Amino acid sequence: MKEFHVISHTHWDREWYQPFEEMRLRLLDLVDNLLAIFEQQPDYVFHMDAQIVCLEDYLEVRPHRRADIARHIREGRLLVGPWYVQNDFNLCSGEATVRNLLIGSTLAEEWGACQRVGYAPDQFGLTGQLPQIYAGFGVFHTLAARGYRFYERAEDGALRQKTMPMEFDWIGADGTRMNSVNLACWYNNAQRFPSDDSKAWAYLRLVEENLEPISSTPTKLLMNGVDHLEPQDDLLPILDGLQKRLGEAAQIKQSTMIECLEKIAADFEGRAKPEIQGELRHGDTTLILQGTLSSRPYLKLLNMQCQNLLELVLEPLYTHLAQWSGGAVEYPADMLDYLWKELQKNHAHDSICGCSADRVHQDNENRFMRILDAANELRRRGLNHLVQRIDRKGMDSDGYILTVANTLPYERAEMVEAELHPLLDDGFESFSLIDEKGKAIDFELLATGEGNRCLFTPCNLPGQKRVHNHRIRFRLAVPAGGYRTLRLYRNAKEAEVASTLRPAPQGWVMQNEFMRVVVGADGQVDLLDSETGIESPDIFGFEDVADVGESYWFTPDPGAAPIDCTGNPEVAIVGERGVRLTYAFGVRLHLWLDAGCRHLAVSAEVDNRRENHRLRLLVHTDVHSDECLSSQPFDCVRRSGSPPFPDLRDDWTEPNNGLVSVKDWNKQFSIFNNGIYEYEHLRDARGTIALTLMRSTARIANDPMCCQDTHAPDPMWDAPENQCLRKVSYRLAIRPGQATEAALMREMQGFQVPLLAVFDAVDSRKFSGGRPYVGEPGLQEYWHRLPGDPEINFPLQREGLALDEKAVFSALKRAHDRAAWILRFFNPAENAMVAEAPKLEARVSDLDERTGGAEWSAGMKVGAKKIVTLRFTKRIGETNDND
After folding, report:
1. In this predicted structure, what is the pLDDT of residue 189?
2. Counting Cβ atoms within 10 Å, is residue 607 exposed (0-12), middle (13-18) or buried (19+)?
3. What range(s) does the Glycoside hydrolase family 38 central domain occupy (predicted)?
4. Are the CB atoms for 659 and 631 separated by under 8 Å?
5. pLDDT tens across 355-389, in order?
6. For residue 761, is it within any domain?
7. Which domain holds residue 479?
């Protein structure tokens, strides 16, 4: 028997073409009316877009309705979760998506019930590891609208859309299988039923007719709602009338997503469904909206900075501090949970994608900056907790130390940049840097001078002291998850500051053990891989073209000539190992090559003064391969550079989250970045990778109502700040040479998160005094609050948690229930690995961090593309019973 399942819902964008507070007023109306419907119609059921943040937004204004909302959730009328917010999957890290589900599902259960359906109605493409992430939260059914549209070439040569069944099995990168339904007729295919009986009947027949060619089961999914639509209050009597017309031939009812999807799965028992594996990014430009990867690039940079600080710095830093100190250093769980929730609010797909009104993105930028304010202060405090607990026995009381910390679970030998502020009176105009064994560390003095250092303490008034301001740079090997402590010794000979900038009329040569880089007087950059002898000439170029598109997609102007990016740059030498290239069109590149470093570091500064254009950095790899590798959440994706229908889209830009690599039979060329999410593997003679540095457009959308109106839209869709007339700075690295996916992703993380340095006096009271309250000399007194337990002293160097070299780190943190610790890593390779580390007594957990699971032991097999979550309660290195 045919069954029509009517799903009453709204798709709620917290902010989009209207700013948050305007949208919240509409949300208040919606929820107020919904609660009234619940009171009048006890059988009414409504989906709140699978995200819990809407209820938080509502209850901030109407806290007195909390009990009513909780009651309706418990009784199954108001359906919420598993998301905290409907985020974008390509622009958010895998860990961010896990935290989104962790926060959302936990809050939903606290409210009374969580609907465990993978509902992602309007995200602009779905990542290949999403099925595995869903399964880690007990979700095995998915609903999505985008990324599942396929084409074929007709006899006349035109492209036409293929008719595909909306029910299919989505197979994730690791093989996880999801019962999936594509919302081919969108999430409003039954948006609102007419109240007139005959019109309602005709409407049902139209909906059925639209579904018939693509629905392969007698169970029909009818989505009753759309963006920001309030619930249809007369729906139930209309459905009763339709049921009378249908009689016993069919059934129509208000239903739930989970009930409908479970029925569809049952319909397919004993027969096969179509299978689609990997990421869902199939379709034309209007479906995938890949222009959002580069719209408002400054937001993307801030987002990656925030994510990396939380995931790769603060959580592992405080986990180690809490473990090493036996709990004397408190893990800041409350503050980190708060920062994660604030970050998630910026991850809403219309926010992080840069496709909203200017006011929305002003709020986004401000929220990112507030997150960074708090995160940087937590980092400062954590490093102070570390350095102030270093054992000072045998050190001169007027001396100074410098501790360098590595928050990643891999040993790293990298460049460190540090600021030193010894007191003027202590005589450290010049100094040596000495390691734990008394060996001198060579360093480059980048800057020196004198100044005041402000002192803020909880016990005294703010004060200041006169100090030297030295900035140095040096190379150091630091153990996995650990630190090393160096000491400063006075020198009689004053060090010279490295020359900051000087002309290079003859060009410049930089070389280390891995590569040789020649910068010509004309600005051409040639790179020689010293290990293979393969040369890559003229590796950098630029492309700048007019863009008449919008925030959602790039549209080239067929009548516009390419914008001139020719002309030799001004070449200058920076310091001992750097070159600066300044171009007339507002771009400046800085190149550095350090000893022992496998990559050429690049910073790109764009001073954008042009409107309606797209500027790309072209990296000529000379690798002749149809495929490229791209880092994605919990994955390294292999993509073809030759799409089957090149004319389907105006461009074939794709997402990455920090790594793009191309490889042929004898050469590999990789690029790291710190938030350039959009790239394109060009089909040209030089194997070029194009990285979008700037995309400037004037509107959210040119045709927001999708009615092919040739007139300009309402001014509310204008977004002049989307032109990005500002300065934006990026960091990149060019990495020649062969490497595995895991090795590249680990190196990428090290590039994105440099080693941390913290300076302190041997006598920490020098910088904890401030100034006294009483002015009389005889009554002046300073109070000092130093680390609580003087018996807890850390050694000069220490190793923390270490991972197997074939694994990539994702998280080391306090469990969400705060009863244990969590370690998460993944295998990005296409084959299984044997993990010899970590050597940790733990149990394997799902992504939801619940207890139970098999015991972990070093040497266990980790399947291809698998994400591993371990839960442990004892200190790292201990081997007693755990939970």
Report:
1. 98
2. middle
3. 292-368
4. yes
5. 999 999 999 999 999 999 999 999 999 999 999 99
6. yes
7. 400-498+755-797
